[in-house]
Amino acid sequence: MGWSTSQLADLAGTTLRTIRHYHDVGLLAEPERRANGYKSYGVPHLVRVLRIKRLTDLGLSLAQIADLGDSDEHPREALRELDAELEAQIERLQRVRAELALVLRQETPTDLPPDVAVMIEDADLSPQDRSFTVVLAQLLSPETLVKYAETLKDYSRDPAVIEFDHLPEDADEQTRQRLAERMRAMPYMAEMRAAFPDPAGLWSDAPRGVEHARRTVVKVMVELYNKAQLDVLVRMNG
């Protein structure tokens, strides 16, 4: 006499719900039924359930197991693929742990790469400028981002920058032009022009492409700065 569904689940160390799910997704063949209508499972069913359970414990999905069919007792290729995936995951987790250790050790903010956060931790950035830098960190290549961060290491808020931060949207033409000229003359701007003679060069090697970076930068600037501030930035870089 064979086993009932509950007995099969108990022998395999699983649950009734799991056995029923294996039936539903086609991983486990339906057994014969006894005269009273109850299912009667045999050794092949138990072996199949144990094999499925073992493969899922190793990390294969039920869909992957289904693709293997019933006869492959040693799915070499599937296990090799799984091993490669696990190796990549381990490498990623090791990188995350190394970065986490740096963040914890140096108590740097988590919205920027640790090396960049360390470089600009003493920069007196306004909330808007810092938000802009955080977005740039997602757009620029690692090399360009470090180069950009280098220009911010000794950044301090010049009186012209403070005026810019508080510039009302209805600032008149004369005020905008005068402020643009003052900001253009700041030492920081000289450093930025030396590092990036062409402003578009900032995202010339952006991983997701120049156009994506440009569109994102424009959208971010429109949200962070009012129309008068944007006009000053255009004049300053004109």
Provide structural commentary.
The protein has helices spanning 5-12, 16-24, 43-58, 62-68, 76-106, 114-120, 127-139, 142-152, 159-165, 173-184, 187-195, 210-224, 227-236, and strands at 32-33, 39-40. It folds into three domains: 5-69, Multidrug-efflux Transporter Regulator, Chain: A, Domain 2; 74-107; 111-236, no CATH class. The mean pLDDT is 85. It contains 13 helices and two strands; from the N terminus they run ααββααααααααααα. Helix 6 runs parallel beside helix 8 (142-152), helix 8 (142-152) packs antiparallel against helix 11 (187-195) and helix 10 crosses helix 13 (227-236). A two-stranded antiparallel sheet has the order 1-2. The protein is an all-alpha fold.
Question: What is the oligomer described by this structure?
Answer: single chain
Mean pLDDT level = 85
Radius of gyration: 31 Å
| C-alpha termini separation | 89 Å
Number of domains: 3
Along the chain, the helix and strand elements come as: HHEEHHHHHHHHHHH
- State the strand order across the main sheet: 1-2
Q: What is the helical fraction, as a range of percent?
A: 55-70%
**Beta-sheet strand percentage?**
under 5%
User: Main β-sheet: number of strands, strand sense, barrel status?
Assistant: 2 strands, antiparallel
**Helix segment tally:** 13
What's the total number of strands?
A: 2
From the spread of the alpha carbons, the general shape counts as elongated
SS-based structural class? mainly alpha
Pfam family, one: MerR_1
InterPro entries: DNA-bd_dom_put_sf, MerR-type_HTH_dom, MerR_fam
Keywords: Coiled coil, DNA-binding
Organism: Lentzea albida
